[in-house]
Amino acid sequence: MIINHQWDIPPLERDNINAFNKEQIEDALENDIGLITTWDLFILIQGLFRNHWEPKVIRELLFNTGIIPQIPTHYKPIGKIFTYIENRDVIGVDLTDGISTGQRVGYKTSNGFFEEDVLSLQIILNNDEVDKAIAGDKIGLKTKFNRDQLFNGLEVYKVT
Hints:
- By secondary structure, the chain is α+β, with helices and mostly antiparallel strands.
- The protein has helices at 22-30, 38-51, 56-59, and strands at 2-3, 34-37, 66-67, 75-85, 90-95, 99-100, 104-109, 112-117, 121-123, 128-130, 132-133, 138-142, 155-159.
- The chain folds into 2 domains: 2-67, no CATH class; 75-159, Translation factors (Elongation Factor Tu (Ef-tu), domain 3, Beta Barrel).
């Protein structure tokens, strides 16, 4: 079910986190129904076109029951942003999984999905430039996005 909730409120002002109540979710699970808001589906489709994803990374989500995940299937979480260094256009990421230069990372914000290639990595502890970082490392990652788009606490994904 695709639900256009709070249709009289602009999309970014809607409560997209609590769009469905407990009873609706339980009913959906009982009856093998997936639930997604029009805004969340729009953001996924916009990401598909903006980033040239294979359609299957969204199509696979639609077979879920209950609340449909809002992250495409080719996104794997690798950590969270803990700082943004404006004068260097660098984000600090606390890694929960590894990443290498040449790979691609993605971010999901309320305005959509953004992606970029990993051009350089730096271990923050000792300022060493590396080609690969592992879970537990705190890294500096050069970015083309600004502080309004990438903020502390935002999840970072490896695009596979």
